[in-house]
């Protein structure tokens, strides 16, 4: 290396950099050549038999579903459309009934109901966003110790409920 650096007049560090760059380039070309050889040998058509069999199994489960009992795998698209329409209409009816029960409640779309934190059960509390079982238990224990919450903001006094979590659930809680 010393003879080479003397004849070319590069410093020792410059030679190390040149050797490193050349070795990276050579290894890159070797990897590229190797991957091209592998790709050409592995260029075989894909076998769809496994995915086809999975599809057959899953569609068999779909047709065994009680909501689609009147429909056979080779059934008409009219019966499928009729069943889907009935399902959509029943879902829409349940939303309309829920809105009628809670008039003026904008939380119907979000899937969360307004909960009175002074009377809510553990299940109702865990239905709030970000509230798990342990936090719900802490809320109930705090509520019993302090004889209820006077205002929703008092919920932040419970360990595990900070400002961010309170902001997430504040629209879904009440104290009356």
Describe what you observe in this structure.
With 176 residues, this protein is an all-alpha fold. It folds into two domains: 1-74, no CATH class; 115-174, DNA polymerase, domain 1 (Orthogonal Bundle), CATH 1.10.150.320. It has seven helices and two strands; from the N terminus they run H-H-H-H-E-H-H-H-E. It has a two-stranded parallel sheet with strand order 1-2. The N and C termini lie far apart (86 Å).
Summarize the helices and strands and which ones pair or pack:
Blueprint: H1 2-8, H2 12-41, H3 49-64, H4 77-101, E1 115-116, H5 122-126, H6 133-146, H7 163-169, E2 173-174
Parallel strand pairs: 1-2
What does this entry show, briefly?
With 176 residues, this protein is an all-alpha fold. Helices cover 59% and strands 2% of the residues.
């Amino acid at each position: 290396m010393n003879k080479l650096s003397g004849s070319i007049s590069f410093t020792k560090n410059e030679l190390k950099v040149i050797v490193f760059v050349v070795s990276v380039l050579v290894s890159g070309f070797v990897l590229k050549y190797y991957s091209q050889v592998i790709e050409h040998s592995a260029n075989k058509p894909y076998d769809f038999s496994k995915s086809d069999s999975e599809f057959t199994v899953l569609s068999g489960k779909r047709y065994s579903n009680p909501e689609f009992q009147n429909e056979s795998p080779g059934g008409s698209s009219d019966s499928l459309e009729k069943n889907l329409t009935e399902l959509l209409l029943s879902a829409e009816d349940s939303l309309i009934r829920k809105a009628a029960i809670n008039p003026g409640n904008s939380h119907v779309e979000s899937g969360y109901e307004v909960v009175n934190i002074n009377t809510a059960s553990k299940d109702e509390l865990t239905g709030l966003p970000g509230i798990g079982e342990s936090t719900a238990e802490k809320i109930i224990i705090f509520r019993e110790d302090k004889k209820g919450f006077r205002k929703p903001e008092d919920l932040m006094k419970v360990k595990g409920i900070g400002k961010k979590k309170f902001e997430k659930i504040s629209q879904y809680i009440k104290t009356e």
